[in-house]
C-alpha cells in the first residue's frame, strides 16, 4: 500500500496491465462472472446454513440463562447494618429508625427489630440495644 501511494503512476500502470491481461484471457466477460458468482453462491450456502444453526443454538442457550440482579435499593438489613457499623455504638430500634429517617429511609422501629432478630449478623445487648457482629473481647 505504501509503495502504491508513493508511486501512483507505476501502480496505475500495473493495475491497468493486470486488467488488460484479464480481459485478453476472458476473465472479465459477463458469462464468466455469472458462472463464477453462481459457484461462489453454491459454496457459500452450506456456510450460511452452518452460521444460522450456530446463531439458533446461541439464542437457545442465552434464552435459557437466568440473570439474577441485585436489588436496586438496599434492604432494611443492609441499611441497618451499614449505619450500625459506621456509628460504632449499639442503638435501640427507635434510635436506628430516627437515624435512618434523617438519611431519607423510612422504616418503622418494629420492622427494624423484626429484621434484626431474623438476621444472624445483629447482636442484641441488654436494654434492647443492637449492634452488628460480635463484640471484641479484650484480654488482659
Would you kindly provide a brief summary of this structure?
This protein has 140 residues and is mainly alpha-helical. It has six helices and two strands.
Descriptive overview:
- By secondary structure, the protein is mainly α.
- The chain has helices at residues 2-6, 8-25, 30-64, 76-87, 93-102, 109-118, and strands spanning 122-125, 129-132.
- It has a two-stranded antiparallel sheet with strand order 1-2.
- It starts with a helix and ends in an 8-residue tail after the last strand.
- 9% of the residues are buried.
What is the CA-atom radius of gyration, in angstroms? Answer: 38 Å
Q: Which descriptor suits the 3D outline?
A: elongated
Order of strands side by side in the largest beta sheet?
A: 1-2
Encode the helix/strand succession as letters. Answer: HHHHHHEE
The tally of helices reads 6
What topology does this entry show?
Blueprint: H1 2-6, H2 8-25, H3 30-64, H4 76-87, H5 93-102, H6 109-118, E1 122-125, E2 129-132
Antiparallel strand pairs: 1-2
Amino acid at each position: 500500500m505504501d509503495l502504491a501511494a508513493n508511486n501512483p503512476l507505476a501502480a496505475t500502470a500495473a493495475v491497468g496491465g493486470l486488467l488488460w491481461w484479464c480481459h485478453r484471457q476472458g476473465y472479465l466477460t459477463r458469462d464468466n462472472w455469472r458462472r463464477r458468482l453462481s459457484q461462489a453462491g453454491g459454496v457459500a450456502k452450506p456456510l450460511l446454513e452452518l452460521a444460522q444453526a450456530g446463531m439458533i443454538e446461541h439464542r437457545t442457550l442465552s434464552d435459557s440463562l437466568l440473570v439474577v440482579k441485585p436489588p436496586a435499593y438496599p434492604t432494611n438489613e443492609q441499611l441497618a447494618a451499614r449505619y450500625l457499623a459506621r456509628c460504632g455504638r449499639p442503638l435501640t430500634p427507635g434510635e436506628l429508625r430516627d437515624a435512618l429517617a434523617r438519611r431519607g429511609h423510612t422504616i418503622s422501629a418494629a420492622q427494624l427489630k423484626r429484621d434484626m432478630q431474623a438476621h444472624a449478623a445483629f447482636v442484641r445487648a441488654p436494654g434492647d440495644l443492637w449492634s452488628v457482629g460480635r463484640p471484641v473481647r479484650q484480654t488482659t
